[in-house]
Amino acid sequence: MMCGIADYTSLITRVSTPGEWGILSFRLEDCEVPLAANGKASDGPVWRGIPGLHEYSAPVILDGFEKLGLAKADTVLWFQHEFNIWQDSDAFVAMLKQLDLPRVVTLHTLRFQTSETSFGLTGEEYSLLRDLLPNVDAITVFSKGVYSAATTAFPEHRRKVHVLRHGVRSYAEVLHLSRRQAKEAFNDFLLGESDLEPETKEALRSERIFLDPDTVILGQMGFLHPIKGSEFLYPARDGLQELLPQQRLVAIRIGRPRLPEHIPHAIELRKQQNGKDKFLFDIWLPEQMLPLAARAFDINYYWPNDCTQSGMITHAFGAGALVAGRDLEGVGETLKEAGALYDSDPERLLLKIRELVLAPKLQENAREKAVNYARKYSWENQALRHYRLAGNLLSTPPARAN
Fold first, then answer.
1. How far is CA 53 from the centre of its chain?
2. CA distance 162 to 8
3. CA nearest neighbour of 91 among 48, 55, 63, 124
4. Residue 173: its H or E element
5. d(CA 122, CA 115)
6. Which among 184, 129, 168 has a CA at the least distance from the CA of 295?
7. Helices and strands in the chain: count of H runs, count of E runs
8. Domain ranges in the chain?
């Protein structure tokens, strides 16, 4: 499945001990979410039997549990939650109530800076937590901001709320490359192996986008969706060009719409590209190309409308790439801790980017901080923290609502 919780599950199970995990997933033909770029389902102990995004229940989960041959005595049910995937919150909570096992929910898309409630949560998020917390043994969130919002709203459940940062995968094969080497390698992929349109490949050749040492690339990856704020990338290029008149600035957006309803957004972005300094690469990058692309960009620029979390930013940190983004919600908190550039004002952020572009020493410092962040929150470390929490829960009776 092409979504954040699928990527998260895949990455954390890759570094987990074989025989100590299993996955209960949606039926691929019914889940309404496109498959990953390679179209292949992951290997391992996976049961794909949840019938759809609106049709889940405790009996369905228990059926998958039995099909995988899991033992109740040493098992924690750990749900990865996004509102767009578990679309019926009432059914989700009802399912949790009926499961007589330790239950943990990782909430990927909670906010803490909205004005909808006094706690910074949206009304929908507040309602979910109100109903969910009495019926789970723990929830995990990605940021201290969300932790504070949840525990302030529901102080009686404070002990159930845990911060587990989004994991980061380090890419040793990319980290040893200079940015010039990364640009050359990514350019070779785009011109040789990618399914870019012929006219785009010709523009890359003629403009020498990735080969000209005086070109600064402002890049962004991920599926095209209005919440990503990709429409801000090209104006950012224009503003940065004014600040750096001696260099050529190029903006590159890589990705496709994930769902049909996002196609109009992609069409609008396409209208803004010009084949010279503003590009939209209408391709899915293979997973192994994501860190190389991030390293090839001089700056990975993100100004999303929804800033709860970003898997793409973690790919960039794992590649030792430079990131600049919006100081809002969980993304802002992550940028700060990782030593990346951040601001709540786009004009001020451009000034910070100019300073970074002109100072190689600052670039190296930022790269070192990104690598250190990736090491601290590696998937291996985060998996151990998951197992530690699960072990603690297994030693106490499952929580029951009154």
1. 20
2. 17
3. 55
4. helix 172-175
5. 8
6. 184
7. 16, 12
8. 4-167+379-394, 172-376
Per-residue pLDDT, 361: 97
Lookup: tokens for 223: 């599926």
Residue linked to tokens 């070192």: 368
pLDDT (0 to 100) of residue 310? 76
Nearest to 84 by CA among 198, 6, 138, 17: 6
Angle at 107 between CA 13 and CA 23, to 5 degrees: 30
CATH architecture of 4-167+379-394: 3-Layer(aba) Sandwich (3.40)
pLDDT in tens, 20-54: 999 999 887 755 554 444 445 556 799 999 987 77
Query: Tell me, what's the pLDDT at 401?
Result: 63
Res 34: pLDDT? 46
Alpha helix (H) ranges present in 219-359? 233-243, 263-272, 290-296, 311-318, 329-337, 346-357
- The sign of the dihedral angle between the CA atoms of 28, 31, 37, 42 is negative
Share of the chain above pLDDT 90, in %: 83
Q: What is the pTM of this model?
A: 0.92
Distance CA 79, CA 65 (A): 13
User: For 216-230, how does the pLDDT look when each residue is reduced to its tens digit (9 = 90+)?
Assistant: 999 999 989 999 999
Helix (H) or strand (E) holding 103: strand 103-107
Enter the CATH code of domain 172-376: 3.40.50.2000
179-197 pLDDT, tens per residue? Answer: 999 999 999 999 999 999 9
Q: Which helix (H) or strand (E) holds 61?
A: helix 58-67
- Is 135 in contact with 105 (CB distance < 8 Å)? no
Nearest alpha-carbon partner for 4 in 315, 378, 316, 310: 310
Supply 326's token pair.
Answer: 């919006």
Same fold, 4-167+379-394 and 172-376: yes
In one-letter notation, the amino acid at residue 26 is F
Mean pLDDT across 283-298: 95
Q: Which of 326, 317, 325, 251 is nearest to 290 (CA)?
A: 317
